[in-house]
Amino acid sequence: MLDTLRGWLHAMLDWVQSFAHTPHGGTALFAIAFAESSFFPIPPDVLLIPLCLGDPSRAFWFAGLCSLGSVLGGVAGYAIGYWGGRPLVYRFFADEKVHAVERYYDRYNAWATGIAGLTPIPYKLFTISGGACAIDFKIFLLASAVSRSLRFFAVATLIWWFGAPIQAFLDEYLELLFIAFVVLLLGGFWVFGRGMGRAGRSGAGAGAAPAGTAPAGTDSAGPTVPAEPAAEALPVSEVRKGDDR
Description:
Elements: H1 2-17, H2 25-36, H3 45-54, H4 59-92, H5 95-118, H6 123-132, H7 137-162, H8 165-207, E1 218-219, E2 222-223, H9 236-244
């Protein structure tokens, strides 16, 4: 299993990195950054790094292309989650569970999206689940733009400043990083499903009436019996006539 995964990763990495030696490196970088934010398993850093090393004077241009492609790909991932994942979520989970997760996700979506955009956590997990939970799109877009730009411009700055020694470090640890990336991706979707189940259970428990408590409009013995209407009061003059008789 591990050997198969390692061979698949090597093939994918070699294919992505091969674009660094073609005239279409910038176009390929934009396309891979776009695809990685929604479905492609290899992050664009794999191509960004050799492109920056090959032409350090254009490192920040490549970082800008990568950031733009990644943010637009995040929008595509959001759309996939909203139009494709959302119906599936409602199909496999009860409505109250979905609404509970949506409220939680919407409260912390800027932090979650920003953290995912800066770290090796698979970004597509947050773009697709963000769409599935219908989080605030403006905040999602802003957090994506800030975090992804910070990440890719930081990579470009390091390469521009240190140069080739960074490549030696990446060659040594890149395989381990991408195996961890795939594990994090699968684990992230598992945690999302578990979190939806827990949030739904807690939401259902909060909405249920305590044991032994009767619903509104009833008492412990049963439904409330309406009281007899009060007799209409007679005018004072009529009362006096009755007394005289």
